[in-house]
């Protein structure tokens, strides 16, 4: 199966209405249409973008106890037709809100560290927020989005996964999937540690060789009929076997053989998806390049494309009008939608 991504595949562009850099984003489906949810560098409001009509909206949120710097990391899910967002930032812990009303659903926990990364998944039929701490040692957590705090009764939602013993730097990437019928979570740290967790027991299920660079994105993909862990950072996208903990490596063009840490131009974000039945990854770099990777063929698809003028902070793969696409956002304040396949 041939896949391609080049400069001609740039489908849509739109500037965030705040004019500030886009720090993070997620995509949900509302009434059958994708909606991009993002936060900017000011971290005070959440923004949504409807690609169908290039329509932006700005959403204010109630301020929970412990709020210090705002939202620089964001995830979003849909529950009973309502968008729920969750996020935090490096020095502020995770919380959840109803996007429409701005009401707090789960408050910041005083004993949790700041938030380094957040993503969403449905590995066992329930919507989860996956969170990685910025603190040391860094906690890895999964929250059931359907559970909320009830302050009137003193009932507080608890994470369904709360692991704090394996990472000794912040979590740069986190994702979830299913392995041998069991829901699992993968976390990758800035210390190069990558761990696969059993969501049911909370135990570490697999350990991987330490990556040669800080991890800035992690995912799970079915490759050759087997679940594989995907991690990215520096000049490399890595494909890991949960049975052996070993990595296969793909590199950006021109990557130095002797080292894999590209300060100023390396990979800063990753998402994993399926295009035309084939597993792919899309990455964004510090110098504005966007790349698509064929995980089955262990190769870069086409050439890196450079429409972003500055760092790409976030990427998500989704479907738009029946076509697989990726949306990227970053320092230049622009969302760009790329066709895949």
Strand-pairing-aware structural class? mainly beta
Instruction: Please tell me the CATH architecture by its name.
Output: 7 Propeller
Mean pLDDT, to the nearest integer, reads 93
Low-confidence stretches: none
The top level CATH class name: Mainly Beta
The tally of strands reads 28
Number of domains: 1
Global morphology: globular
Describe the structure.
The protein is mostly beta strands and 341 residues long. The protein has a single domain (7-339), classed as YVTN repeat-like/Quinoprotein amine dehydrogenase (Methylamine Dehydrogenase, Chain H, 7 Propeller), CATH 2.130.10.10. 0% of the residues lie in helices and 56% in strands. It is built from no helices and 28 strands. The radius of gyration is 18 Å and the shape is globular. The mean pLDDT is 93.
Key features?
341 residues; mainly beta; Methylamine Dehydrogenase, Chain H; 4-stranded antiparallel β-sheet; 28 strands
Report a brief summary of the structure.
The radius of gyration is 18 Å and the shape is globular. The chain has one domain (7-339): Methylamine Dehydrogenase, Chain H (7 Propeller), CATH 2.130.10. It starts with 9 loop residues before the first strand and ends with a strand.
């Amino acid at each position: 199966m041939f896949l391609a991504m080049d400069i001609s595949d740039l489908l849509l562009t739109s500037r965030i209405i705040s004019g500030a850099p886009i720090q993070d984003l997620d995509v949900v489906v509302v009434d059958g249409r994708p909606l991009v949810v993002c936060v900017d560098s000011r971290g005070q409001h959440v923004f949504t973008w409807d690609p169908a009509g290039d329509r932006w909206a700005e959403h204010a949120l109630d301020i929970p106890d412990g709020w210090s710097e705002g939202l620089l990391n964001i995830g979003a899910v849909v529950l009973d037709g309502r968008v729920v967002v969750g996020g935090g930032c490096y020095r502020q812990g995770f919380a959840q809100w109803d996007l429409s009303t701005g009401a707090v659903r789960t408050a910041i926990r005083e004993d949790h560290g700041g938030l380094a990364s957040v993503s969403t998944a449905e590995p066992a039929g329930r919507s989860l927020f996956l969170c990685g701490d910025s603190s040391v040692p860094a906690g890895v957590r999964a929250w059931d989005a359907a559970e909320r705090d009830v302050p009137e009764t003193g009932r507080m939602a608890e994470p369904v996964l709360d692991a704090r013993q394996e990472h000794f730097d912040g979590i740069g990437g986190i994702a979830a999937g299913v392995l041998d019928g069991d829901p699992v979570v993968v976390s990758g740290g800035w210390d190069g540690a990558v761990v696969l967790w059993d969501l049911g027991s909370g135990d570490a299920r697999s350990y991987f060789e330490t990556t040669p660079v800080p991890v800035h994105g992690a995912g799970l993909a079915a490759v050759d009929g087997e679940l594989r862990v995907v991690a990215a950072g520096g000049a490399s996208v890595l494909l890991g076997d949960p049975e052996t903990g070993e990595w296969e490596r793909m590199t950006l063009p021109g990557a130095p053989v002797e080292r894999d840490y590209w300060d100023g131009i390396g990979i800063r974000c990753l998402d994993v998806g399926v295009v035309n039945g084939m597993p792919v990854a899309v990455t964004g770099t510090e110098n504005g390049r966007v790349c698509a990777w064929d995980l089955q063929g262990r190769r870069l698809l086409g050439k890196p494309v450079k429409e972003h003028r500055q760092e790409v902070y976030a990427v998500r793969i989704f479907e738009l009008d029946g076509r697989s696409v990726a949306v990227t956002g970053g320092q230049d304040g622009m969302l760009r939608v790329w066709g895949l396949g």
